[in-house]
Design brief:
The chain has 8 helices and 4 strands, in the order H-E-E-H-H-H-H-E-E-H-H-H. The chain is mainly α. The strands form 2 sheets. Strands 1-2 form a two-stranded antiparallel ribbon. It has a two-stranded antiparallel sheet with strand order 3-4. A hairpin with a 6-residue loop joins strand 3 and strand 4. Helix 2 runs antiparallel to helix 6 and helix 3 runs parallel beside helix 8. The two termini are 31 Å apart.
């Protein structure tokens, strides 16, 4: 768990929630004087989506009122990118389940069967389009469509950025009505940063949070947990079959 100084403005809120507890799988050496953090290891697999969401939370809670308009762009970008990565994580897990099911079926007929093509979430930043892809990926493995709360959040953020994700990253975007570029936000847009952050944290808590087993014990699994558990179970089923066929190095 990250350690915040006692006087950190965001400490009370962050430390009161379990959502951000397990972003990194294990601690890393930190040089407090230079803020140098050591990252990377063959087992290092951070929860990227929650890391972005935590970044938005710290910026939002530590900013003074007279600074908030100057950092609205990075806060909003961190918020929407957290959701994008969370949706793509769910899509990837659904594709992994489809891949493993298909390969197991083929191996039961022919132990020499090559693996099918493993799909990944499309290289698309549009939140509404990603929800559509998630619906298709879930449907292909017999799951219900994306939860309404997740869908509503994605559609709302897509509407705020007028279906152009680059609006948060650049001062100008390609114009939809004329040749050339136009200001990212040529007309005023009200962005309720604190409300969006709170609702995103609710979306993640209910649907996109892979909790540690001790914390999740007795609770209804989230969407990402349900997908992750099935994907891991299929991997555990695949391994002995491939091992028996002398192909254990293929998984």
């Amino acid at each position: 768990m990250s350690n915040f100084p006692l006087n950190h403005p965001a400490k009370g809120l962050i430390m009161s929630t379990e959502l951000y507890k397990d972003i990194v799988p294990f601690g890393a050496p930190i040089d407090g004087a230079t803020k140098t953090v050591t990252i990377g290891d063959w087992l290092w697999c951070p929860d990227v989506a929650l890391s972005y969401l935590l970044g938005a939370r710290i910026l939002l809670d530590s900013a003074r009122d007279d600074d908030i308009d100057r950092i609205v762009l990075p806060i909003s970008y961190l918020q929407r990118h957290a959701l994008e990565v969370g949706i793509k994580d769910a899509i990837d897990l659904a594709y992994e389940i489809s891949f493993s099911r298909a390969w197991l079926g083929q191996l039961h007929v022919d132990l020499g069967a090559p693996p099918p093509t493993l799909r990944r979430a499309s290289f698309d930043h549009g939140l509404s389009r990603l929800i559509t892809e998630l619906d298709r990926a879930l449907s292909s493995i017999g799951y219900d469509p994306a939860p309404p709360l997740l869908r509503a959040m994605a559609d709302e953020l897509a509407e705020t950025e007028q279906n152009k994700p680059d609006r948060w990253r650049y001062s100008k975007v390609r114009s939809q009505s004329r040749v050339g570029f136009e200001p990212s936000f040529s007309t005023p847009v009200a962005v309720p940063l604190a409300d969006i952050q709170s609702r995103l944290e609710t979306v993640f808590t209910r649907h996109l949070w892979f909790r540690d087993q001790e914390h999740a014990l007795g609770d209804e699994p989230t969407l990402i947990e349900t997908l992750g558990i099935e994907s891991e179970r299929l991997d555990q089923t695949l391994f002995p079959v491939l091992h028996h066929a002398g192909r254990a190095d293929e998984i």
